[in-house]
Amino acid sequence: MMWELFNVGDVLALSLSQKAPIAAICVGICCGLLGCFVVVRRVALLGDAISHAVFPGVVAGFMWSDDRDPWVIFVCALVAGLMGVGVVRAIVTSTRLKSDAALGIVLASFFAVGVFWNSTQQFPGVDGFLFGDLTTIADVDLWLMVGSTFAVGMLVCMFLRPFRVLSFDEGFAIGLGYPVRFLNGLFFGLLAFAVVVALQAVGVILVSAMLITPAATAYLLTNRIQKMMGLSVLLGVLAALGGWYIASIDVRFQTGPVITLLAAFVFACTYFLAPRHGVLAKYLRRSGMKSRVHRENTLKAIYRIIEEDGFKSSGVGVERLAEVRKLSFEQVTKDGQQLVRNDEASWEEGKSALYLTSSGWRRAAEIVRNHRLWELYLTDQADYAADHVHDDAEQIEHILGADTVRKLERDLNFPQFDPHGKPIPNLETTLQMEKAAGKQEETGY
Fold it and tell me: How far is Cα 213 from Cα 100, in angstroms, rounded to an integer?
C-alpha cells in the first residue's frame, strides 16, 4: 500500500497523548477556516449534506481495503462527498426545486445508502466514523490530517480575496472577472476535504457542528471576515482540545459529542453575552432607546407648553405637563426626576414645576425641529398629506443625525414654518432660550 511505502508515523512515532491534541488542532483549523464561508454564504445545510454524503464512501473504503488503508478510505469519502455536491447542483439546475430541498434529499439518501450498505456487510470499524474518536487515531491518520489541513489552509490563503467577494456578492464577483464556476467548485471541494478530515474526530453525524458552530459564534463577535476567520479557528481548536480533554478524563464520553456540546455551550454564551449582537446587549440597547425616547417626548411636551405660553418662561407646572402628556401626576413626577438626573431640568421648590436647563432646552428644541422639518419634508418632497405626517415624524425625530438635519434644511431652503404653520426652531431662537434657561438656573428658578 502507498502508506506502507512511506509511513510518516514510523518516522515520527507519537504517543496517544500527543496525537489526539494535534488531530484536534487540525480539525479546529480546517473546519474553522471553511466554516466562515459556509456561514456567510448561508449554505450551512450544505455542510451537513456533505458530511452525511461521505458515509457511503467510508463504507466503500472499508470494503475495498482489507487492512483499513486510510488513504483508500480518505479518497473514497472525498469522492462520495463531491458526488453529493454534484447531485445537489444537478437537481437545482435541472428542476424547479430549491437548494434546501435538494440538500435534504442528498443528505438523507446518501446517508441511507451508507447505513444500508454497512448493515449488509458489517465492516468492523465503520461505526467509529459515525461519532468519531480522537483517542483511537492511528499515526497515518494523524499525518494525513496534518497534510490535509496544511493544504486547505494554503488554498484558503491563496484564494482568500475571491472567496470573500464570492461569499458576499456572486454578481459582483462575476463583474470583477473572477472564474466563479471554478471558485465554487474549489470551495465545495475544500468543504468536502474538511469534512473528511474531521471524520476521525467528530464523526459523520456531528462534523457539520464543527463547520458551523465555531463560525456562527465568531459571526456574532465581529463584522470583519478576517477577524471572523481567526476567531472561528481559535474557537474550533479550543472546542476540539477541550472536548478531547474532557473525554479523556472519563472513558464513558465519546469525543465527538463532547466536542460538539462544548462548541454549542460557547455559542450559547456568546448568543446571550456578545457585546454587540448578543441578546443581552440588544435588550439593553432597546431599553436605553426606549428610555431616551420617553425622556425626549417629555422634553418635547415641555417645549410645546412653553411655546404656547409665548416663551415667557423655561418651566412648566407638573399638573399641566401631566394633562398634556395624558399621564398620571406620579408618572410625570418620575419622568421629571429622570430629566433632573440627566441634567436636563431642575425642580422648583416643592416639585410643583420643572424648569429646563440650557442642555435640556437645546435638546427639546432639536427634537421639535427634527419633527417639524421631517413633516415639511414629507409634504414637500414626498407628496404626503399634511394630516398624515405626524406619526412618521414621531418615529424619525429621535434618530435624525446632525448631518441629515443640515441636509434637510438646505434641501428645504432653511424653512421657518412646518406644514401646520408652526415655527421651526432655529439656531438663533435656541441660543436665546438656552441663555434664558442659564440665567434662570443661576437665579434659582
Answer: 19
- What range does the domain containing 181 cover? 2-277
Give dist(CA 278, CA 215) in Å, integer.
Answer: 15
Residue 292's identity, in one-letter code, is: R
Backbone angles phi, psi at 376, to 5 degrees: -65, -40
Q: Which of 260, 277, 294 is the last residue of a domain?
A: 277
Amino acid in position 339: L
One domain, residues 371 and 426: yes
DSSP 184-203: HHHHHHHHHHHHHHHHHHHH
**What's the CATH code of the domain at 381?**
1.10.10.10
Final residue in a domain of this structure, among 277, 301, 324: 277
Q: What is the pLDDT of residues 42-87, one digit of tens each?
A: 888 888 888 888 888 888 888 887 667 778 888 888 898 889 888 9
Name the burial class of residue 352, with classes exposed (0-12), middle (13-18) and buried (19+) by CB atoms within 10 angstroms of its CB: exposed
Encoded amino acid at 237, one letter: V
Which phi and psi angles does 398 have, rounded to 5°? -85, -10
The SS3 assignment for 316 reads strand
d(CA 288, CA 220): 21
Q: Residue 417, by phi and psi: left (phi above 0), alpha (psi -120 to 50) or beta?
A: beta
Is residue 254 within 8 Å of residue 133, measured between CB atoms? yes
Instruction: Summarize pLDDT for 195-239 with one digit per residue, the tens.
Output: 888 877 777 777 888 889 999 999 999 989 999 999 999 999 999
Rounded Cα distance, 240 and 232, in Å: 12
For β-strands 345-347 and 315-317, DSSP reports them as unpaired
